[in-house]
Each structure stands twice: as C-alpha cells, then as structure tokens.
Specification:
Number of strands: 16
Distance between the termini: 13 Å
CATH architecture of the largest domain: Sandwich
Helix content: 25-40%
Strand content: 25-35%
Number of domains: 2
Bound molecules: adenosine-5'-triphosphate
CATH class of the largest domain: Mainly Beta
Radius of gyration: 19 Å
Length: 299
C-alpha cells in the first residue's frame, strides 16, 4: 500500500454549538494529541457568520496538510466545500447531532478513536456533487425532510430529540409536492413526499435513504418517496433503518451522472443539512473523486 504523507500542520474548525456538546475539553484533547505527535495545530471556532470566508482566508495564508471539521454535518460541509478540487484532505472529528457523512465514511464516532486519525490514516478521493453551483458532499433534499431541517435550524434546540419532535409535528400536516426530474438515465414527473439527491447513503439519524450508494463511483442517486397512506409510515421508516428502502412500493431510486430537478411547487431545499435557495430549476452535476478525505486504515 502507498505510504501516506505524514501530516504536520493542521487546522481544526470547531463548531462550539454542534450536537449541544461542550467543546472546551475536546479542544484541550486536540492540542495534547497534536503535541504528543509533534503536529502543529491551529484552532478556528465557528461563529455562524461568514465562517467560510474566514476559514478560506486562513487556508490561503497557511499551508495546511489537512483541515479537520470538528462538529456535525453542517461543519463538515462548510469545510469540505472549501477543499473540493484541492490537494488538502478533509478530516472529520464527529461531534454533531447526527454525523451522517462521517458514519458513511466509516470514521469512528468515538472522539478518542477519531483523534487517532491525526497520525494513523489513509487518504482517499470521494465524489462531490453540485446543485446550481452549491457543493454537496452528503445528502440534499427537497420536500418533507428539507422542511424539518429548516424548522430545526430556525429553532434553538439541538440534538436528535429536537429533530424527531419537529419531524412528528410537520408530518401530521405535510402534503406531497410536484416535481419534474430529467436525468441521463431516467425521467420522473409527479408528486413526491420527498426527493433526496444522494452522494452518500444515510442521514445522521442512520435512516438509509440510499443504501447501495457508493461515494466514489462517479454517480449519484435521486431517491424518491412517492405519496403514501399515513398508515404506511411506520413500515417505510422501518425499511429505512434496516437498509431495505427498495422493498417499498412507495420508493424509487434513479442512479445517474447528471440531472435537472424542476421544483415546480417551490418547496424548501437543504444541502447537506443547511437550508438553501436554489430557484425552480436545479441543475445537478457530478464531480468525480474531487475531495480528498482522511479515513481509518482499512482492516
Ligand atoms: N458559534 C456559533 N453560534 C451559533 N451557530 C453556529 C455557530 N457556529 C456554527 N453555527 C451553526 O451551526 C450549524 C452547523 O451545525 P452542525 O451541522 O455542525 O451541527 P449539528 O447541527 O449539531 O449536527 P448535525 O448536522 O450532524 O445534525 C450551522 O447552521 C452554523 O451556522
């Protein structure tokens, strides 16, 4: 196996509010681990305002060997988007409410184990996708889940419990919306409960919307949940949590390399867990193996 370049100079982007977990102790742990392995470490704490600009400035000023996102999927996307197309790998110390991408990548969810990646790892390339110029590394949605994500981001409670409570409240009154989807393989026109544009497999909650998706195959999947009777919801959820969504008559997945999604009813959208405004016509393109990521050494 090719010898990995040793990391020397690291930037850690720490989201102090992610997952409702106090990060002070962790910051000390990061500093200690770096000192033990003679690594130079810089910490940047996100503020929620113009973080992308601030981090970009730091990356341009200093020659970092890797940038670690310390937080949830939003923090991972923020950092990952800045590293797409560069030689600088993205590291992840998962500390959010859900940590979907890190789970799909097999990154340890235990902080101490994840910190081992600073000195023992491999670097691999993964695909990213682009929605009207906005990068997406994990999963983006139109429809029900996007609405829940929007309400979650507007609220002041974090964590999986807050997310589940909002989902339940919205589910009771949610009506499917109309979409037209054209891809290089198949087309779709009709109502859907939600449309997921998936580079990866599962949401942070572990619900697998795209169970067989591969992060470096040069393809993405459009996962549709079509209108279903309210009574079918528990079985649908069960299928998602048991990697068996394709067994449902209410779902379909389109694997493709490019797509245009017409969001006819102007339904809300999120990209990797952050609400986004994309207009009615959404062009989705694939950037194969465009992001380097730091992963555990395979067993
Ligand atoms: N200092 C801060 N104060 C308030 N909000 C912040 C701050 N730093 C970042 N944010 C916000 O945190 C959100 C990203 O959080 P992140 O996704 O990392 O964690 P999470 O939501 O707890 O976890 P997950 O996405 O895995 O469910 C962004 O909306 C960002 O604007």
């Amino acid at each position: 196996m090719k010898e990995e370049k040793k990391l020397r100079n690291l930037l850690f982007v720490v989201n102090p509010i992610a997952g409702d977990i106090d990060k002070e102790e962790l910051e000390d742990e990061i500093k200690t681990t770096c000192a033990e392995h003679q690594l130079n470490c810089t910490l940047y704490r996100t503020t929620g305002k113009n973080d992308a600009g601030e981090i970009k400035k730091r990356i341009e000023q200093d020659n970092y060997d890797a940038v670690f996102a310390v937080g949830g999927d939003g923090t991972v996307s923020l950092v990952g988007a800045l590293l797409i197309g560069t030689q600088t790998p993205l590291g992840i110390i998962p500390l959010g409410s859900g940590n979907g991408l890190s789970k799909d990548l097999g990154i340890p969810q235990d902080t101490e184990e994840a910190l081992q990646l600073l000195h023992e790892h491999v670097v691999r390339n993964i695909d990213t996708i682009d929605l009207n110029g906005h990068p997406s590394i994990h999963l983006s949605d139109l429809g029900f889940n996007a609405l829940v994500v929007k309400r979650f981001c507007e609220g002041d409670k974090r964590g999986p419990g807050a997310y589940a409570w909002i989902a339940l409240q919205e589910y009771i009154q949610y009506e499917p919306k109309f979409y037209r989807i054209e891809t290089d393989t198949e087309n779709f026109e009709g109502e859907a409960f939600m449309v997921t544009i998936a580079n990866a497999n599962a949401f942070g909650s572990n619900a697998a919307i795209n169970p067989s998706g591969i992060l470096n195959d040069g393809r993405f999947e459009i996962c549709l949940i079509e209108p279903f009777p309210k009574a079918a919801a528990p079985v649908l959820l069960y299928r998602m949590y048991t990697d068996n969504i394709d067994g449902s008559i209410y779902t379909r997945r389109i694997s493709c390399r490019r797509a245009t999604v017409y969001n006819v009813d102007h339904e809300v959208v999120h990209i990797d867990g952050e609400p986004a405004e994309l207009g009615e016509e959404i062009k989705v393109t694939m950037h194969a193996k465009s992001l380097k990521v730091i992963l555990p050494i395979p067993e």
